[in-house]
Amino acid sequence: RWLLSRHQARRRAWGKSLAMIAGIDPGYPDYDQVLSAAGEAFAAWIAERSAAGEPTDSLEAQADAFFRRYLPETNVDPVAWDPVSRAAAVAVARLRLAADVGSMRGVEAMLTSATAGLAPEAPSHDAAYALLALAQARQGHVRDALASLRAVRDESTAPLLELLSELERTDAAPESAHLALAELRLQTAERLSARADELDDSERLRVELAQARALADAAMTDPAKLRKALAAYASLATRYPQDATVHREQAEIYVRLGDPTSLASALKKWRYVERKSPAGSDDWFRAKYYLALVHGRLGNVERGRDIVALTRALHPDLGGAEWQRRFDDLLASELR
User: Fold this and answer.
1) What are the residues whose beta carbons fall under 8 Å from the beta carbon of 114, sequence distance 6 or more?
2) 114, 132, 252, 284 — which has fewest CB within 10 A?
3) DSSP characters for 159-194?
4) Contact, 131 vs 93, CB < 8 A?
């Protein structure tokens, strides 16, 4: 059943894989590995359903109930953790953090207890500490998260990639922790960058983009990081000329800088994004919006208003309610 479940997982047949896992006796010698595989299968299945716009509540509840039965009693001291219960704790934490549900403090407490005295070479060690760092970051406890990050071994690229992806969408930290959160993302990306030869092409691009974004965010108080961010985006733009995300984010940094030289560079970059984006796509409307905005900030208000008028003539709905609102606000502010 274990081999069959792995075969079904490779085929991304998550339901069949989990059905096989459900029939494996918990007394199986490597049952902690079985639970780890079940956690990955549930997470992937939920992610696929979510991406397809399908409801995931019942599947999330099913997964939570499946793993919670393997958690130890917590009203005893010390809590009796073993490899199976630690694997279950990692799975429960991953599901709750991915869905951003439940008490982050509760997830932190569970993982703190599960990692107490855990040997670095233990199977659940690195995943548990990476998820602990995420739970702490979601609460704004970035200093604690940095300490948890340091506990993750360098060779564990999978937990670090998972942490980086989740940190990229973490915005629950208090505003005061924004810069510290950028530093956490930066340190995570730098550790992965040091092992770039172990990553595939798409993973390397993800890491490099995350590193550039973190540098740009940290640059609010550190001009040296701004220079590094600009250099990172310039390198990415040269190596990935067809990647819209790279050029869009580079253009946004030029706009954020706001000086005449940077705004001139922003115009060139947004024109590039416009040419590379299908007419009527979200990136195309974004390029039109920023071209109008930048012209306004350079003093070419009439040119900016002409861009908005032409865009509205070509696409009267301006790409939907959100873009309509943004274009209207632009006309009422920057392009008055």
Assistant:
1) 81, 85, 86, 89, 90, 124, 128
2) 252
3) HHHHHHHHHHT---S-GGGHHHHHHHHHHHHHHHHT
4) yes
SS3 content of the chain, % helix, strand, coil (to 5): 75, 0, 25
- Asked if residues 150 and 129 have their Cβ atoms less than 8 Å apart, the reply is no
Half-sphere exposure of 253 (CA within 13 A, CB side): 24
Q: Write the CB contacts of 213 (distance below 8 Å, at least 6 apart in sequence).
A: 168, 185, 249
* N- to C-terminal Cα separation, the chain: 68
State the pTM of this model: 0.85
Q: What is the pLDDT of residues 68-94, one digit of tens each?
A: 999 988 766 677 899 999 999 999 999
pLDDT digits (tens, 9 = 90+) for 208-227: 999 999 998 887 777 788 88
Among the residues of 139-177, which ranges form H helices?
A: 142-151, 157-168
